[in-house]
Amino acid sequence: MCGIVGYVGHRPAAEILLEGLRRLEYRGYDSAGVAIQDVQGISIRKKAGRVSELAGLLAEQPCAGSLGIGHTRWATHGPATDVNSHPHVGGNGEVVVVHNGVIENYSTLRDQLQAIGYVFHSATDTEVVAHLVAHHLEEQIRLGKDPQDQQTALDAIELALRKLKGTYGLGILFRDFPDLLIAARLGSPLVVGVGKGEYFLASDASPLVGHTDEVVYLSDHEMVVLTAQGMSLKHRETGARAPSIQTLEQTSQDTDLNGFEHYMLKEIFEQPQTIENAMRGRFEEEEATSRFGGLNLTVQQLRRVDRIVLTACGTSWHAGLVGEYLIEEFARIPVEVEYASELRYRNPPLSENTMVFAITQSGETADTLAALRECQRKGHPTLAICNVVGSTIAREADGGIYLHAGPEVGVASTKAFTSQVTVLTLLALHLGRLRHMSHPAGKRIINNLQAMPEMVRQALKCHDAVKDIAKKYQGISDCLYMGRQFNFPVALEGALKLKEISYIHAEGYPAAEMKHGPIALIDEHTPSIFIVPKGAMYHKVMSNLEEVKARRGPIIAVACEGDKKLEALADDVIYVPEVEDFLQPLVTTIPLQLFAYHMALLRGCNVDRPRNLAKSVTVE
Ligand code: AGP
Predict the structure, then answer these.
(1) Is 320 helix (H, G, I), strand (E, B) or coil?
(2) Distance from the CA of 405 to the center of ligand 1, in angstroms?
């Protein structure tokens, strides 16, 4: 939900922190700030607005120094104002903190600290952490600890952390220990980049790209002390541990725009490649099945599975709905798709042979992580379908399947959705071929899947047509999306895309549901987007389309190339290639992504940084 960066080394910290914040801005962009240790102590520069505003402030009031922390905020407590921007100062300036997460007991702690004289300036939960560390530092010194010994400062942090309830990823500086950068993690991700005589800290790996490919992921309850000379890692319960250094897969190519105007458009056009990446090395053609390297379950365990729960949020939840149709169709295993935020508290009666999949692009969504942990607590095998290697959910799940889609920077998820659907198709094939599915049936699925990158490339050719259609509808205030079976989740996904980046109210429905109420919304100002490719549901959806037309509702149809019938019925038609029903989401989603993109542009919205949103929702 917020982005944290840190640097300690031999180079000026300011530009390194700023560039890191730019790369993390997709996590939150309400305000930004840095704190840099220099000869006069710790200088802080922070303000509401984008990282570019902060860069302007630093240009006017530069900070020297080679040790610092930075933060870009998605507001949880307190509006996006200068004073609520991070970093926050504790005591009389002896402690400075940046924080990602939510301190649930901040109000009680704030009252306690105020009662003993601490003065608060902001409305944030983070300022409580800063004052609490300062309080314990003063207390340690009062109890006779050596004020010059860095252990005194570290003990103060540990004492403070024990009082916090909630989640945190923290970067901490001490005025009187100018060579220390300390970080601590509980529930919000942190990764350390290991350079040559320099160390980097970040909420995820993107700021490290180009500086180092050696990374250390922190786990919950771990604290790391970084200096230009080295790093030391300690777990609250198990004590010190040697850092396990992993190699970063990302490259700067992944995070560059490569000539596109926005990350979202770049990622939409990456989909032929990312779908191919999701399949690479996962076909067993001889056996007409698929294979995964990380499921960590035996064939016997997989055969015993009698129910599958797919849990996720947002777009990943929509991918789960496609997965439900796929797995039930191909493997005949009952599937439930659960909002993660509901599953965690719903406590459904699951059998011991229920397998749980968390579907998540970022691997850091707090609701999904909490649901996964709840299922693990009950002994269910938990797997993750995830895009970010080394993310919390990927590491905590018992096994999983990576998307290999590369970093998805646009807040609106696009390539992750189609990669998730591709992986779920492979999974359904795998499970089906372990049960009753025939070799020819498996082979047919493989052949159709292998053709999908080209089919999606064809589908992308609708771009100009969609751009023109968006111009026609840019002034609408409501929009309905309708589809059936495999395209019902696509209707939901299309509506979410439009909502989250153009701020137009949109709803997705099973097409047949229209007549059970929503059709009352139809009038000449409310367009309906019908996903009506050739296939098993074609005639049924056409009937629903006619029902809307009879009530003068404008109709945009997503149809198969050559379907001239639609031209007489719909006001606008967007053509996609004809594919098997079960693969239709991979092509019918494309025009809906592009439609949302262009509607947002026409309405002057920030496509990659839509208001009120963040890429990774690491708070519950
Ligand atoms: C999708 O466009 C949204 N940005 C959002 O719904 C997202 O899919 C959701 O927050 C889940 O994120 P995850 O896949 O990283 O868990």
Answers:
(1) helix
(2) 15
Pocket test for ligand 1, best of 203, 362, 402 (most atoms within 8 A of CB): 362
In angstroms, rounded to a whole number, what is the distance separating the alpha carbons of residues 600 and 411? 13
Q: Is 416 in contact with 360 (CB distance < 8 Å)?
A: no
Tell me the pLDDT band of 26, cut-offs 50, 70 and 90.
confident
Select from 223, 251, 279 the last residue of a domain. Answer: 251
Residue 603, burial from CB neighbour count under 10 angstroms (0-12, 13-18, 19+): middle
Shared-domain flag, residues 267 and 247 = no
259 in the Ramachandran plot: left (φ > 0), alpha (ψ -120 to 50) or beta?
A: left
Compute φ and ψ for 211, nearest 5 degrees: -100, -40
CA 197 / ligand 1 centre spacing (Å): 37
Evaluate if residue 618 carries a pLDDT over 80.
Answer: no
Q: Name the pairing type of β-strands 214-217 and 246-247.
A: antiparallel
Please tell me if the CB atom of residue 362 comes closer than 6 angstroms to any atom of ligand 1.
yes
Residue with tokens 């003063």: 138
Which residue, of 235, 251, 267, is where some domain finishes? 251
The mean pLDDT of 6-29, rounded to a whole number, is 91
Report pLDDT for 1: 66
Tokens of 176: 């009187």
All residues at 6 or more sequence positions from 347 whose CB lies less than 8 Å from its CB, including other chains: none
Which ligand 1 atom is at minimum distance from the Cα of 312?
Answer: 16
* Residue 268: other Cβ atoms inside 10 A: 24
Probe residue for ligand 1, chosen from 188, 268, 311, 315 as the CB with the greatest number of ligand atoms within 8 Å: 315
* Atom of ligand 1 lying closest to residue 617 CA: 10
The percentage of residues in the chain with a pLDDT greater than 90, rounded to a whole number, is 85
Residue 29: pLDDT over 80: no
> Is the CB–ligand 1 distance for residue 411 below 6 Å?
yes
Quote the tokens at residue 168: 């945190």
* Neighbouring-strand partners of residue 508: 481
Check pocket membership of 361 for ligand 1, CB cut-off 6 A.
Answer: yes
Residue 146: inside a domain? no
The model's confidence at residue 30, banded by pLDDT at 50, 70 and 90, is confident
pLDDT in tens, 225-254: 999 999 999 999 899 999 999 988 777 767
The one-letter amino acid code at 109 reads L
Query: Does residue 552 belong to any structural domain of this protein?
Result: yes
Helix intervals (H) in 451-551: 452-459, 463-473, 488-502, 538-549
Sequence-ordered list of residues with C-beta below 8 angstroms from that of 581, at least 6 positions apart, any chain: 485, 486, 535, 536, 537
Domain CATH for 399: 3.40.50.10490
User: Which residue range(s) make up the domain with 559?
Assistant: 460-607
Which residue numbers are catalytic? 2, 615
| Shared domain check, 358 and 275 | yes
Predicted structure pTM score: 0.79
